[in-house]
Amino acid sequence: MKIVIKVALSISFILYLFALMIILFLGSRGFQLSDLSMLEYIRYSSNFVPFKTINTYFNAIFDGSMNMDIPIKNLGGNFILFLPMGIYLPFFIKKINNVSIFSISMITVLFVIEVLQLVTRRGSFDIDDLILNMLGALIGYGIWKTKFVQNKLQNRTTLTIFN
Fold first, then answer.
1. Fewest 10 Å CB contacts: which of 78, 88, 98, 159?
2. Which keywords does this Swiss-Prot/TrEMBL entry list (predicted)?
3. CB 83, CB 139: distance < 8 Å
4. pLDDT, one tens digit for every residue, the chain (163 residues)
């Protein structure tokens, strides 16, 4: 049974990473700024002010100034997108066993992703995306650390792949 769980989680993790790459780097983008220099692109497509985008979307939800799909997809999507990572990372990497190490690891991963999206012009750098992604990952980590999940894992022996 232990090997079945390892294989199932490994396959699901690979599929998750594949879907993540498609969403983050190959999906359609709403704006085209390819004629701009890199500095101009960074200036026009980046948000370095925490909660600016989140606040804009919340205001749009309450005042109806935007199609409701846009803020819900952006807020919910960014929140949910990295929730599975909160479960996968501590499962596969045993050293990520406390919230501090997990948080540092995730902030690093998310920052690199945001910068890559900017440099490849496949998206923008938005600090609010990083905040929402991090919150989702922390919720996933919280699920991972619940007594229910940990008890299930204890009954199946250690399931780590990387030590």
1. 98
2. Membrane, Transmembrane, Transmembrane helix
3. yes
4. 578 878 988 999 999 999 999 999 887 665 566 688 889 988 988 999 999 999 999 999 999 899 989 999 999 999 999 999 999 999 999 899 899 999 999 999 999 999 999 888 888 899 999 999 999 999 999 999 998 888 877 665 444 555 4
Give the tokens for residue 65.
Answer: 């100034």
The reported pTM is 0.85
Structure tokens at 46: 């980046």
Domain residue spans of the chain: 2-155
Q: How far is CA 16 from CA 12, 21, 29, 96, in A?
A: 6, 9, 21, 19
Q: Which residue has the tokens 């990473």?
A: 17
CA dihedral 27, 123, 132, 105 (to 10 degrees): 100
Q: What is the dihedral of CA 114, 119, 125, 130, to 10 degrees?
A: 0
